[in-house]
Structure formats: C-alpha cells, structure tokens
Write a structure and sequence with these properties.
The protein has one domain. The chain contains 8 helices and no strands. It has helices at 2-17, 20-40, 46-66, 74-83, 86-116, 123-150, 157-182, 186-216. It is globular and about 55 Å long. The model has no long low-confidence stretch (mean pLDDT 81).
Length: 217
C-alpha cells in the first residue's frame, strides 16, 4: 500500500505542475452546462436532465483519465519497473482517478444544479450512484489510458476503446439515477445497485489482473 500511496502523491504533484488541465476541464463543464441552459431555457425534463448530466460527466471523465499515463515516457516506465510493482502502479493510478472523478462529479452536480435546477427526489442515492460510477469509470479508463500510452498516446484511442467497455455501467447507472430524480426506493433498486457495484468491482479486478501483461510489453 505504501507504493500505491506514493503513486497517488506523485500523480497529484505532476498534475498540479501542469494545473491547466484541471482548469480546462472545469471550463469545459461550465461552458457545456451553460450552453445546455441556454438551449432549454431552464425548462428541462427529468429524462433530459439525466441524459445531459451523464453525457457531460462521461466525456469529462474520458478527458481526465486520458492523462493517467501522460507523463510516463518510455524511460519513466523503465524507472517505475525497477521501483514499484505493476499492481501498485495501476491501483495508485485508479485511486487517483477515482478521487479526481469524484471531485469532478461533485463540481458537475453543483454547476448543473445551479443552472438547470436540482430535481433530485433522493440526493443521497444520486451521490452514491455518482461515486460508484466514478470508481467503475476510473478502473476502465485508467487501463485504456495505459493501452493508449503503449500504442503511441493516440488521443482518439481512449474514447474509441472505453465507450464499449463502459456501456453496461452507463445503462445501469442511467436507469438508477433517473429513479433517484423521480422517486427512489432502496428496497426496489437494491438489485441494480448491486449490479452497478459488481460492475465497478469487476472493472477494478480486470485492470489489476491485466495491467501486468501490458506492463511487461
């Protein structure tokens, strides 16, 4: 775990040294929500609110996670190879992205709610769904970012590879989040919450198991 925490601290320091990436994502979220507000003129239904929120958050997450291996050139990969285990590296990257996407998701909720309204019947359920999705997204997107880094850091590759892999999570969380907006029952929606949790866990385990093979290449 010490190696995992060191990777998290290193990623934060590297990203903060190029902090314009943080501000660019915040500006992207603010501008897209503002444009949506102008289009709908503050008269938006629950389905549209739900769909627009997750589309904006999803593409912000893809852009954020794409930088997971942005600073890792070939020589730094060799340096990491002698210092940390691949499992520690991928877990550190995933946990950093989870924290990053969690904060990004909260910012999106605040901006979206401030401009488009807060039509949440159960805010606790919506936030739980948001953090479960952040965990699942970070696991898949971090692994895809590693594949893209090994393939020459093609910026289009993460979006192309990640959307099909994230499809089961997107379908499940969109159903759950819509119910949290209109009326949420923990007993009725417990199976879908378990499915979303298992999808996040399976994504985490797959990244943990597959990354060492990518590392050795």
């Amino acid at each position: 775990m010490q190696g995992v925490f060191q990777i998290i601290k290193l990623n934060f320091r590297l990203e903060w040294s190029a902090r314009q990436s943080y501000f660019s994502l915040l500006i992207y979220i603010l501008s897209t929500v503002y444009i949506s507000n102008l289009v709908f003129e503050q008269t938006i239904g629950l389905e549209s609110w739900n769909a627009f929120f997750w589309v904006i958050f999803l593409f912000a997450a893809v852009q954020a996670a794409y930088r997971s291996f942005y600073f890792e050139a070939d020589r730094r990969f060799l340096l990491y190879f002698g210092l940390v285990a691949p499992e520690s590296l991928i877990l550190g990257k995933i946990l950093y992205n989870f924290l990053y996407l969690g904060v990004l998701g909260l910012f999106t909720v605040l901006i979206f709610g401030g401009l488009m309204g807060f039509p949440m019947a159960n805010p606790e359920a919506f936030l739980l769904i948001l953090f479960l999705s952040a965990l699942g997204f970070s696991a898949i997107l971090t692994l895809v970012s590693g594949i893209a880094a090994k393939a020459g850091a093609n910026p289009a590759l993460p979006a192309i590879l990640s959307i099909p892999l994230l499809y089961p999570q997107i379908i499940t969380l969109s159903k759950l989040s819509l119910r949290s907006l209109s009326g949420f029952s923990w007993e009725v929606n417990a199976p879908l919450l378990i499915v979303l949790s298992l999808l996040a866990l399976v994504s985490l385990l797959l990244s943990y198991l597959l990354f060492p093979y990518l590392w050795r290449d």
